[in-house]
Amino acid sequence: MNATVKSLSPTSAFTKLLEEITQKVGLTLQSQVPLARYTAARIGGNAEFFVEVNSSSKLEQLISLIWEKDIPYTLLGGGSNVLISDEGLPGLVIINRARGRARIRFDDNEEAVLVWADAGVTLTHLARQAAERGFSGLEWACGIPGTVGGAVVNNAGAFGGNMAGNFVMATILHRKLETHQVRAVQEQWTLADMEYRYRSSRLKDQPNQAVVLAALLRLERGNPQEIKAKMDQYNQHRRRTQPPGASLGSMFKNPPGDFAGRLIEQAGLKGLTVGRAMISPMHANFFINLGNASANDVWQLIQVARQTVAAKFGIQLELEIQPLGIFPEPQTRTMINSILEVHNG
């Protein structure tokens, strides 16, 4: 397959190396690509270099080569739950587009109902495909704007369900150093290997050391009408309680025995606006892009929410989203007070 190179910066050794690698895999390399269009929040600067991958096999080839050459990279799926800095991302940004019907394989046998899905398949698409076949277990995933790969890494969940509850195993590409040489080794990780916990996993603890290629999930037989009715119920609940438009999803993890949204609301921060970013008046754990918001706008809201909740309740909120790139140092209390004074009139 012939590859092409688009809009590249002046020739350098690094550029030439990326050209050689992407051409070898059969991919199109671009430079200075705006990343806002690839994120759910529609926020983010440019990728220094950029490539889209449409199959797990090409993803495996590409990751193996960039590990071998020690090239800095960022892998994105659905672009949800990430905040990309206004300065953008250095190195190579990879968008995983391995999705569609051909990337999903159901296995309905006497012992169990199983489904293999490539990492780039969206959760909502997978849940709907399962529902059409009368397979239950992924109703919680319908409406989550992420991919299977991201869900496996983050233990995504909603409405009492999560990835750990469906997970059987995953095909993982693991970065290993053997005799001073990096090798990409394909492995099958079980539920125990993943070390799942609330919105986290062993994979999340080891960024850029392993990549999800595909996952095997366990489902149950059910009634298609009942499954779809439950999915409709969950989607209606989301529409009633979560703001429409561009957002990062849940900003903070819920602390034990409480809810991040409740704490932020009780701190009087609903509706707080910095630049073109706002803490949603509908749900305080959602920070929304009012249009042309910058990553720094959102970052300031994060600092205000964290420090205000800590001061009022003694609770340190932990981010559920992942900041990518370079962000300013946390704001001083004086700066935060000035923001709150404007908010409180």
Number of helical regions:
11
Run of helices and strands: EHEEHEEEEEHEHEEHEEHHEHEHEEEHEH
Computed CA radius of gyration, to the nearest angstrom: 21 Å
CATH topology grouping of the largest domain: Uridine Diphospho-n-acetylenolpyruvylglucosamine Reductase, domain 3
Summarize the structure.
The chain is an alpha+beta fold and 345 residues long. It has helices at residues 13-25, 56-68, 123-132, 148-154, 163-166, 191-194, 202-205, 224-241, 260-266, 295-313, 333-343, and strands at 5-6, 29-34, 46-53, 73-76, 82-84, 89-96, 104-108, 113-118, 135-136, 157-158, 161-162, 167-178, 181-190, 210-221, 247-250, 273-274, 277-279, 286-289, 322-324. A hairpin with a 2-residue loop joins strand 16 (273-274) and strand 17.
Task: Please provide a written account of the structure.
The chain is α+β, with helices and mostly antiparallel strands and 345 residues long. The chain folds into three domains: 5-96, Uridine Diphospho-n-acetylenolpyruvylglucosamine Reductase, domain 2, CATH 3.30.43.10; 101-240, Uridine Diphospho-n-acetylenolpyruvylglucosamine Reductase, domain 3; 244-343, Uridine Diphospho-n-acetylenolpyruvylglucosamine Reductase, domain 1, CATH 3.90.78. It is 32% helix and 28% strand. The chain is built from eleven helices and 19 strands. It has helices spanning 13-25, 56-68, 123-132, 148-154, 163-166, 191-194, 202-205, 224-241, 260-266, 295-313, 333-343; strands spanning 5-6, 29-34, 46-53, 73-76, 82-84, 89-96, 104-108, 113-118, 135-136, 157-158, 161-162, 167-178, 181-190, 210-221, 247-250, 273-274, 277-279, 286-289, 322-324. The strands form five sheets. Strands 7, 8, 9, 12, 13 and 14 form a six-stranded antiparallel β-sheet that branches. Strands 1-2-3-6-4 form a five-stranded mixed β-sheet. Strand 12 and strand 13 form a beta hairpin. Residues 1-7 have low confidence and may be disordered.
